[in-house]
């Protein structure tokens, strides 16, 4: 917690704002990575994992890109 306090003092914004941004980013990144893995989209998964955009890329992926794809389960007899 001390490192967050130090960061808040250095940047000049409240601690709660830093915590909010961290939780916001992790939530959107988790949802987007889950969807990319489920759709087996390796390149999207890698991009979402590496690029940090405070959830912007993740939201674009979830609401614009991944809606065009569906996973079809085929059962073999």
From TrEMBL:
Pfam family name, one: DUF5652
Transmembrane spans: 6-31, 43-64
InterPro entries to which the protein is assigned, alphabetical: DUF5652
Keyword Membrane: yes
Domain DUF5652: 14-70
Entry keyword set: Membrane, Transmembrane, Transmembrane helix
Record protein name field: DUF5652 domain-containing protein
Organismal lineage: Bacteria, Candidatus Zambryskiibacteriota
């Amino acid at each position: 917690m001390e490192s967050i306090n130090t960061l808040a003092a250095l940047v000049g914004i409240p601690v709660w704002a830093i915590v909010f941004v961290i939780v916001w980013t992790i939530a959107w990144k988790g949802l987007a990575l889950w969807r990319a893995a489920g759709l087996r989209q390796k390149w999207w998964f890698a991009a979402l994992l590496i690029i940090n955009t405070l959830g912007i890329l993740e939201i674009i992926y979830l609401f614009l890109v991944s809606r065009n794809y569906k996973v079809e389960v085929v059962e073999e007899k």
